[in-house]
Amino acid sequence: MRLPKWKPISFTTESIQALRAGTKTQTRRILKIRGTLPEFGGYSGEESDLSIWEFPGLGLGPEGEEALTLEDLAEWKRCQYGRAGDFLWVKETWAISGVYKNPTGGDPLPRYEYKAFPADGTDFRSVSRWKSPRYMPRAASRLSYQLADVRIQRLHDITFVDAVAEGVPSSYGEAVKLWGQAFLRGRASHVWDNFTSVENYAWLWDKINGKGSWERNDWVAALTLAPVPAESEAPHV
Prior knowledge:
By secondary structure, this protein is of the alpha+beta class. The protein has one domain. Helices cover 19% and strands 22% of the residues. The chain has six helices and nine strands, in the order βαβββββββαααααβ. The chain has helices at 13-21, 160-165, 172-179, 189-194, 197-209, 213-216; strands spanning 6-10, 26-30, 52-53, 68-69, 87-91, 94-100, 109-114, 144-154, 219-227. It is globular, with a radius of gyration of 21 Å. The two termini are 13 Å apart.
């Protein structure tokens, strides 16, 4: 029997704010494809059925040949963050503002600070320089999630419900309250309020992943996250 595994996952400060506010329960990540992909040839089946895909030149498709399923393609479309049931520990923008007394009597412990809301609810202590999530050690992580669901799909398959679960605010006012106007520069209030949640998500995707990244329509892993309480006995494998 395969035991659940722990893997790290990085989030932007804006995403951490949405996670902590409880408005974000999904995240999409570009798949690290293994090997060479056959040329994408279109979708076969119902809109809601993501199990059958056609690829030209492989003897697969609707002409009586055997269909190619996501299970068959699992090797080259494997999610780098694991499977449903696995665990993720979150990496975010952080810093060390000093040390505090070790309650066990050992060496002093580092006092971690987080750019997305201070951990203790007070103003930041002396933080001269924020560190990238890339360099966050496991000991500094304050958020953990279990993968409730992992779906392999194209980026443009995101639905309205998914966009809301991604933490996209329903109004410009809510977006400003969550992220601040500086982050929303280039997205006017009337544009945000008159566009759909999916369209606003597309703008956010480009802002985070680079201009033109939405149009590429990459293969992504749509991860549904379930919070893990700090006192959880989840296995660390």
